[in-house]
Amino acid sequence: MTDTATHPDDHAISRRAVLGGGLGVLATFVLHPNRAGAAPGRATSASGATSAAALGAAATGGTVSGWVRVNADNTVTIAFGGAEMGQGIMTGLAQGVAEELMVDWSQVRTEAAPPAQSYVTGGSFGVRRNLGAMRLAGAQALDVLRRAAAAKWKVDPASLTVKRGVFTNPATGAKLKFSQVAAAASALTPAASPPLTPQSAFRILGKTAKRVDLPSKVDGSATFGIDVRVPDMVYAAIKHCPTIGGSLAATPAVPAGAIAVVPLANAVAVVADTTWAAFKAANALSVSWSIPSAASKVSSASMLATQQALMASGTAGSPVAEQVGDAVGAYGSSAQQLEATYQVPYLPHVCMEVLNCTAHVTADSAEVWVPTQAPAWVVGTVQTVTGLPASAITVHPTLLGGGLGRKIEQDYVLQAVTVAKAVGRPVKLTWQREEDMGHDQYRPSGLVRVRLGLGGNKKVAAYQSRIVTPSPLAQRGWIGPTGNDNVDGAVELPYTFGSRLVEYVRDPATIPVGFWRSVGESINCFAVESAMDEAAALAGKDPLTFRRMHLPAGTRARKVLDTAAAQIGWTTAPPAGRARGIALATGFGSLAAMIVEISQPTAGTMAVHRVACAVDVGFAVNPGQVVSQLEGGIIQGISSAQWGRTTFSSGRASSRNFSNTRLLKMRETPVITVKVIQSGMENLGGIGEVGVPPMAPALANAWAALTGTRLRTLPLFPSAGGMGD
Fold first, then answer.
1. Burial class of residue 572 (count of CB atoms within 10 Å of its CB; 0-12, 13-18, 19+)
2. Whole-prediction pTM value?
C-alpha cells in the first residue's frame, strides 16, 4: 500500500553534435563514462573527439555515446548507458530527454549505448548524475529540429509551436513532423546551452510514467543474461574451490557426458551440451584442490576476535574520516555517557538471476552477452584474457535480474571468456545458486563502537564512532594504505552534535568483499540510529523528541522525520502487544525516515505489521518508481536485518541456497506507506539504496521498546536463518 505526494544538475557535455542521415536525427552527448578501474560512482568525463566514421556509422544504425534518434515513424529512440536492474533508471533518464524534446511518452523507445560510452551503475548515481546531460541532449536535438523547420518555412524559429514531435506554423497552420526535417537538422550545429523547460511547465518529469522495460518483462520477450542463446552455443558450469584462498591443484579428466573441463585459477569449468548436463557433471566431478594452511583459521569466531582487537588498539586511517572539535575531551566531561558496540555480519547479495555470461572468442574478435553494471569494464576484462584491441570486442549488455552491486564485478565475465577461448565455441557459463552464494563478494562484516556524551541539557555534546571493517576499495587497490572506507552513514550526519570524531580501522580479513546495496550506510546507520535510541532512553526522552532536539526546524531531515511520524500516528499508542521503532538515514543525496510497528507472535520471533516511510529525494523524476524502490528496499532491509548473514568455518562460507538464507515471504510483508517529499531539483538525490539502511535500527529499536531487550548484533534472529515452510 502506498501513499505518494509528488511534490538540473549541471553536467558538462563533452561532445555536442547533431547528425542526420536519411530518416533520422542523432543528438550525441556523453553521460560521464567511468574509466576502467575507477571506483563505482566516481564519474569522469570522456576525452577526445568522435571520429566522422563513427558518427556516420551511428546515423546508419551503429552505436555512439548517449544518442537520441528520431525515427521514420516519428518515434524517438533514446540510448541508455547504464544498467537496468529493476530500479527504473532507463525510464527516468528517458523522461528527461522526452521532456525537452517535446514528444509524448508513447513515442519513446530505448536501446543500449555502447560500452565505451557507458558508465558504471552504482551508488544511486544513475539519475542524479546524468539527468542534466539527458535533458540538455533533448533540448539540443529540439533546437536544430526547430531551426530546420523554420528554414523550410522561412520564418523565425521562435514563432513555431511544437507538440508530440510535430511543429506548427501559426501563420499558416502548416505542420512538419520531426522525421520530415531530421536530415536538414543534421547539418546544423546545436546551441551550446539551449533553454531548458522550467519545472513549472514539466509534462513528463515529476510524473509517474510507465516504465519502458516492463512490457517486455511481462510478455516474456525481455532478454536477461540468462536468456541469451546464440548459434553453436555450448554450456558451462563452474565449480569453485570450496575454501576461500584455495586454488586448483590438478585439472580433472573430462567426465562422461561432458565436452571439456577448463582449468581456472580457483575453479574448473565443465562444458556440456546443456546447462543441466553441465551442472550434473560439475556436481559429480572430483577435484583436487590446493588449500592454504591458514584456511583452517578463517572462521567467523577468529575474524570477530581480530575485529575486537583492532577496535581496542588498531591504527585508524589518516587523516581521520571526520573531526569537528574535541569529541574525546567533550565525551570525558559529559554529564552522561553512552558507549555501545554494534556488530554486523558478512552478507550475500542473493540476486534472483544468478551470475552468468555468454562469450564467443575467435583469433581476431570477441563478443560477450552479459548482465553487467559496468560494460566498459567488461571490455577491459576481455582484453586481459584475449589480448585483443578494444575495437575487436563487442559487448551486449542485457537486462539484469538484480544487480545490488554484485554485477559490477568481473569474476564471472573473466571465467566465461577464458572458457570460450579454450573451447573455440560460444559458451554460456552459469553459476549454480550454491556457487553464487558461496563465492560472493560479500557486504563487509564489521564492528562499530559509538560513544555519545550528553550535556546537562540532555543534548549530545560529543559523538564518536570507531568503525572496524574490511575494505572493498582497498581489496581492489582503489585507495592507499591509510585510506578510509565504509564510513558512509557515520560522517556528515544531519544531527547538531557538539563535537564529532569518526575513525576507520581497516580489517585485513581475506574474505572477498564488495558493493552491497548501500554498503557503508547499511553498517553505520544500524549503529548510529540504535545508539540514538539508547541515548534517548538515557536522557529520559521519547526517541522522536530526542532526534528532533538535534535537527533544526526547517531542515530536510526534520521534515522527513516529522512526516513519517505523522503517517504512523507516533503520538498515539500502538495497539496492545505492539511497539514502534524509528530511524533516520541520510545518504546518496537523499534522506529517509522509517517507523515500524511490530509484535512478538512467539518467543524470539518478530512480526512486522506496518512500515511508514518518508523520503526526500529532492525531485522525484518518476514518483511511482521512487515508491517502488523504497518498498523493495524496505523488504530487503527486513530480510537482512532479521536473518541475513554468511558465516565462515575453515575458510568455507555457510550460505548455500535459500534453504539456509531466509527471505521475507509475501504473507509476512507488512503494510508499507511511502510519502515522497520534494525539496527542489537542486537537491536531486539517488533512490536505489536509501531505503535499506534505516530498517535494521528501526526494527532493533522497536524490539527494545517491545521487550526491553536491546539487540546490538545483526542479524536479530540468526537461528531463524532457514527458509522454513
1. exposed
2. 0.89
